[in-house]
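User: Mind C-alpha cell order:
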Amino acid sequence: MQRAYLLLALLISMRFLAAAQHVTLKISVRGVFQSKVTLTPLVGAKPGRPLVTTPFVDPNQAITIDVDSQYLPGEFILRFDYKLAKSSSPYPAEKNILIYRQNLSLSVNPPFCNNPDSTRFDDDETENTILRRFTAENAKKRAMVSLLQNFLLKYDDINTVLYEEAMEEYERRRIAYNDWVAEQIHEHAYTFASRVFAFEYIHETAWRGNLTTRIQSMADHYFDSMDFADTLMIRTREATEWMNNYVNLYGSLATDMRTRDSLVCLAGRNAIEKARSGNPRFYGWMVDYFFNGFETNQINSGLLMLGPYLKDSSCLTSKRLAINQRISGIQNLRPGSLAPDFTLRDANGRLVQLSHYPCDCRYKLVLFWAAGCDHCKVLLDKLYPMWRQISSQRLVQVFALGLDESEEDVARWKTMTDRLKGWKHVRCIGGVNSKEASAYFVLSTPTMYLIDGVTNRIISSPESAGQLFDAIR
C-alpha cells in the first residue's frame, strides 16, 4: 500500500507542482516597539545569504518582500531583530517558514514568533499550516515506535521471548506508522510541505544479530522509500539532515579515523549509486553533498572516489569544477612533488619566487588562511605559540597567504598579521580564485603544505598543528 500511495502522489504532483512563480510575503509586526525583518533562504540559490533586511519598522506597519522564483519552493528563516522600547538593544528571534505558490500574509509578535497563536497566516494558507499539523500529529504517532526501536537496539539478550515479542510489536507499529505517512503524502501531494513527510519513514531492520549487524541493516534499507525522481525533495533542509543521519550510521561503526574515512567513503558510494537511478539533479545533489562532507573533513580518498561520476553526463552536479580542481590538487601535490612557485617580496623588497626565497630554515610552511575563517582562528591559536617555541631553532619559515577579499575582512587580516610577527605575510588578490590559491588547488581554509627548505619538495599536507609538528619531528 505504501508504494502505491507514493506512485499516486507522484502522478498528482506532476499535475499540481508546476514551476513556482514570483510571490510576495506581506508581514505586519506587532507587540514590540520596532523590529527589523530579514528573510534568508536555507536551500536553493545562495543558501544562507539574506534576500532582504528591512529597516526598523513600527508596529502594524506592513512590509512586503518579493521572493523570486529561483528561490521557490523553499524553506526560509524569518528573523526579527526587535526592540521592546526605544532605548533598548535589539533582541533576535527566528522562525522557519515554507514558501511556494501562495502570496503569504502574516501578523507576527516577534518574541513569540514560534507560537501559533502569535504568528497568524491568512486562513487559506496551506504549506505552513499543513506542516505544523503534520509535525504535531507525527510526534504522537512516532513515539511508541521510537521507544521500541531504542529497546531493540540496546537490549542485551536477543534470545528471549520478551525480545521476540518486542520485534513483532515493533514491526506491527512500524508498518501502521508508515501507512499513515504514505496517506499524508497522498492527501497533500499538491504541496511542497509533503516533501518533508517522506523523510519520516521508518525502514526495515534485521533485529536478530549483534549491534553492528542491526546498524548495517538500517543503512541497507535506508533508501527503500525514497523517490529519487522527485527533485523537490532536495529543496528541503530536511534532505541534508536525512543524509547526515545516514552517514552517521556508518560513522557509528568506526573504531578509528582510518576506518571512519573508509566507511564514510562506502556510504558515499552506496548513496550516490542509489541516486544515480533517479533524476539527474537528485544524482548531482548527492555528489555535491558528499563533496562538501569530504572537503570539510579533508577525506582525500572520498574526493578521489567522486572522480568517475564527473565523467557521467547525467550527473548534474554544481560542483564539477571544484571537484576536478580538488582531485587534481590531490594527485599533483603529493609528498615528493615540487611545490608550486609563486612570487613574493623578500626582506629587501625584491620580487622572488618561493623556491628562491632566502631561507636558512630546514622547512618552509605554506599556509593559506583567512581572517574571516573560524577554523583558521582555531588553528592559529595553536600553531603560532608552538611555532614560537621552535623558531629559535630555525626549523620552519612560515609563508602565510591571506585569502580575505572584503574590506572588513582585509582590515581584520591586517590587524591579525601585526600579532603574527616573524611570519612572511602575503595577501592574495582574488582570494580563493587567486593565482596562488589556484596553483595549490585551495578550495577552503585553512590549508597547509610543509616543504623541504632545500629541495622545495612537498613533505606533507598537515591538517592540524599537531600533525605539522609530528611531521617536523
